[in-house]
Specification:
By secondary structure, the chain is of the alpha+beta class. The protein contains two helices and six strands; from the N terminus they run βββββαβα. Helix content is 20%, strand content 31%. The longest helix is centred in the middle third of the chain and has 16 residues. The chain starts with a strand and ends with a helix.
Amino acid sequence: MTRLSTGPFGEIATYLPGRRNVPGIRLTPSELHVHVVIEATAAIREVAERVHEAVDLATSDPGRRGPGARTVVVHVDDLDVPTGRAARGTDGVRAVDELEEGD
């Protein structure tokens, strides 16, 4: 994972007491949504599963299993494309600057 995503207008965040906010995380009574941006060459499903497992482990509370427990939902909002000549990935992803050079 590269970073958490706040969405196109910065609307994805959870506001906590004391004027703290957690960008990229949205809580509902039954779900915890994690919005991420990952590297374009990463295996999306594997990264999402690792994020899901890490968040589930970090937020697990044995008293909240079953009814009333929050479900972890991972959203891959965007992909970061590396720049420069070394940006060619296994999927043929090329950086924007290479394309502009007439490659």
